[in-house]
Model the fold of this input.
Amino acid sequence: MSGTAGPVIVVVAVIFAAWYVAAVLLNTPFQRDTYERAGQENVSIARLITDTLAQERPVMPAPHQVAVEIWKTTAEKKVTSKRSLVYHSGITLSSTLLGFLIGTTLGIGLAVLIVHSRVLDKSLMPWIISSQTIPILAIAPMIIVVLNAIGITGTLPKAMISTYLSFFPVTVGMVKGLRSPEIIQLDLMKTYSASQGQTLLKLRLPSAAPFLFASMKVAVAASLVGAIVGELPTGAVAGLGARLLAGSYYGQTIQIWSALIVAAVIAASLVTIVGVSERIVLKRMGMAQ
Done:
């Protein structure tokens, strides 16, 4: 355990050190201007560094400033408060999970159809790949506007954007997984007079399980990105995207960074949950390594 923790601690320490150095360098010009306007000269380096790490609206906030902001907006705020990051995280998380569920279901369904139909493989797969070349920032407003025009508002439009980003890795991973059984295994199923459905349930799906979970890890993180992006073009008042918008409007960089850090923690937690589920499922299937 200690052998594993050592390198991690070193990497984290290097990241924090680089973060502090970058914060000092980026915040120094504004701090020097502040000294000049106040008529202060010959300011010591120690004071300069201290002041650059304590600015109210820094170009780059220091790690301790972000940590304090996260603490104030989580532990010191009611969960139902509009200033609570827990509240905003819950709004974004609901869209993320709904989009991930729809995207995973859609991806598995498309993969099954593609594997069992040469026509769909040749015609549908290129379009699925091409769909990911469209920038999400360009398509997100269109999805929101179209769905709002037909009376669909709230969580579902953002979930659709999450679906758009999450179904692709699941589709590609499942196609690879469903095609992973060897020819000899497929021939053995034929000798048993197994139907396509039986082959799918007894051979293809179990073989595709590791591929599915690997793609789901990518999909759940992409789904969170989609939910946040979906909140940006709508001028949302709730969600992590709304916190990012508000922070950018009013120059609250500490608020922006705190929302980004919380989003990263949520993404890491979701990927971890998928990973734990993978180990449990594969162990029950006798496929755990």
User: Anything to note?
Assistant: Residues 2-37 form the longest helix (36 residues). Residues 96 and 223 are 5 Å apart (CA to CA). DSSP finds eleven helices and no strands in the chain.
